[in-house]
């Protein structure tokens, strides 16, 4: 297992981490959680993610009890939780100083821990001034209840504002953001957040590398495996990339639309060519982004956790660097709405795409495979992946979505 610094901090986190969302309290209790967590530790995972909202707090209780019964040394692991949704009362949610302080103390009680290593603001709060939130998170750090703080699903503008406040007040700014990131959801990580990496040293702990299981390839139109996440009652109403109310549409009926399934089917031959399962390819692809400190994975079975670790081993052991660089490029090809005949020139440094130029792809193919799905319809004049930038010598016109 490789260990990366969490952004510009000195904290080391495993390249893959385990998240308790959906599994703990919904599908697993303490006994099963202990086996799964120990399997993760045996394979080098040291970072475990939670939130006050997961299973209404039960996920934190299960994780804390499991870790205590396993007898792990606290300094050997990194534990995080997230604050925003803590209950039904008017002050039980959001990022006010009151809820941040009370929510943190309640989370620590459920986890049965004196501190968490990282505490996140689970969502932005438009009803609370950023300064109040920044001051409250620093209070949590000063009290020793957490060592670092970060954000989850914030915009680049919101993170920049938090850092501006922190710098003005000589306080600690957020060191990490937790966005969704996978082959079907790329714009924030690869475009919007670019200034944050260099300006503030923000690291990423990304979630949903398999797009809630869609990138395993096990879903077909109208067919939902009974043991899958989409079959869970509490998963209805949550869509990939956005949320809708359950009385309008549910996850199974809208996420598995023809376009998504077509993209997933297009990835399968590439995984077969490389001799790795599609799920492993998808996880390894996320982990290869140099701005990602850790990829948060979910699992309900030990076999799933082992396969996720194998995703990284496949890259470092079975696939050489040039081959994997080819993989990073080609996996993008099938996500493009339509091929665009234009002529890019590439400049790469310190990136998994260092072998971009010598691969010998035709210009037309390079143009198609370097476009992300979100950029296909907005078509910025410069497309990026990590530290790799593709400039268009003849920028194409906007295409309809």
From TrEMBL:
Which Gene3D superfamilies does the record cross-reference, listed alphabetically? NADP-dependent oxidoreductase domain
Annotated coiled-coil segments of the chain: none
**Keyword Disulfide bond tagged:** no
Gene Ontology cellular component?
Answer: monoatomic ion channel complex
* Residue span(s) of domain NADP-dependent oxidoreductase: 16-312
For this protein, the record's Pfam families field holds: Aldo_ket_red
Q: Can you tell which superkingdom this protein's organism belongs to?
A: Eukaryota
Q: Which InterPro entries match?
A: K_chnl_volt-dep_bsu_KCNAB-rel, NAD(P)_OxRdtase_dom_sf, NADP_OxRdtase_dom
- What CDD domains does the record tag this protein with? AKR_AKR6C1_2
* Keywords for this protein: Ion channel, Ion transport, NADP, Oxidoreductase, Potassium, Potassium transport, Transport, Voltage-gated channel
Q: A single GO molecular function, which one?
A: oxidoreductase activity
Signal peptide stretch: none
Q: Which GO terms describe its biological process?
A: monoatomic ion transmembrane transport; potassium ion transport
Q: Which family does it belong to?
A: Belongs to the shaker potassium channel beta subunit family.
Q: What does this protein do?
A: Probable accessory potassium channel protein which modulates the activity of the pore-forming alpha subunit.
Quaternary structure and partners: Forms heteromultimeric complexes with potassium channel alpha subunits.
The protein, known as? Probable voltage-gated potassium channel subunit beta
- Higher taxonomy: Eukaryota, Viridiplantae, Streptophyta, Embryophyta, Tracheophyta
């Amino acid at each position: 297992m490789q260990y990366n610094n969490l952004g510009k901090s000195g904290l080391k986190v495993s390249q893959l981490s385990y998240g308790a969302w959906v599994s703990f309290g919904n599908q697993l209790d303490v006994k099963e959680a202990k086996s799964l967590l120990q399997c993760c530790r045996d394979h080098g995972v040291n970072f475990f993610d939670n939130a006050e909202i997961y299973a209404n707090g039960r996920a934190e209780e299960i994780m804390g009890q499991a870790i205590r019964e396993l007898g792990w040394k606290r300094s050997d692991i990194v534990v995080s939780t997230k604050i925003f949704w803590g209950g039904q009362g008017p002050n039980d949610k959001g990022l006010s100083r009151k809820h941040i302080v009370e929510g943190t103390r309640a989370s620590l009680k459920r986890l049965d821990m004196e501190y968490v290593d990282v505490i996140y603001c689970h969502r932005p709060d438009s009803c609370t001034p950023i300064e109040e939130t920044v001051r409250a998170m620093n209070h949590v750090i000063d009290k020793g209840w957490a060592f670092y703080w970060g954000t989850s699903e914030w915009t680049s503008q919101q993170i920049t504002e938090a850092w501006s406040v922190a710098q003005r007040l000589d306080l600690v700014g957020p060191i990490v953001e937790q966005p969704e990131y996978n082959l079907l959801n790329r714009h924030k990580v690869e475009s919007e957040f670019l200034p944050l990496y260099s300006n503030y040293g923000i690291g990423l702990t990304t979630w949903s590398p398999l797009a809630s299981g869609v990138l395993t390839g096990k879903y077909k139109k109208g067919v939902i495996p009974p043991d899958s996440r989409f079959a869970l009652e509490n998963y209805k109403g949550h869509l990939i990339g956005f949320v809708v109310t359950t009385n309008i549409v549910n996850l199974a009926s809208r996420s598995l639309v023809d376009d998504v399934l077509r993209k997933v089917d297009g990835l399968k031959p590439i995984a077969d060519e490389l001799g790795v399962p599609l799920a492993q390819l998808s996880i390894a692809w996320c982990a290869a982004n140099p701005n990602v400190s850790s990829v948060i994975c979910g699992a309900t079975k030990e076999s799933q956790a082992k396969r996720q670790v194998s995703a990284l081993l496949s890259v470092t052991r079975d696939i050489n660097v040039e081959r994997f660089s080819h993989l990073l490029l080609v996996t993008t090809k099938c996500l493009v709405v339509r091929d665009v005949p234009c002529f890019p020139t590439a400049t790469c440094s310190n990136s998994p795409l260092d072998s971009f130029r010598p691969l010998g792809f035709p210009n037309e193919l390079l143009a198609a495979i370097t476009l992300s799905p979100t950029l296909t319809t907005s078509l910025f004049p410069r497309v990026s992946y990590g530290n790799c930038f593709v400039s268009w010598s003849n920028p194409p016109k906007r295409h309809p979505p």
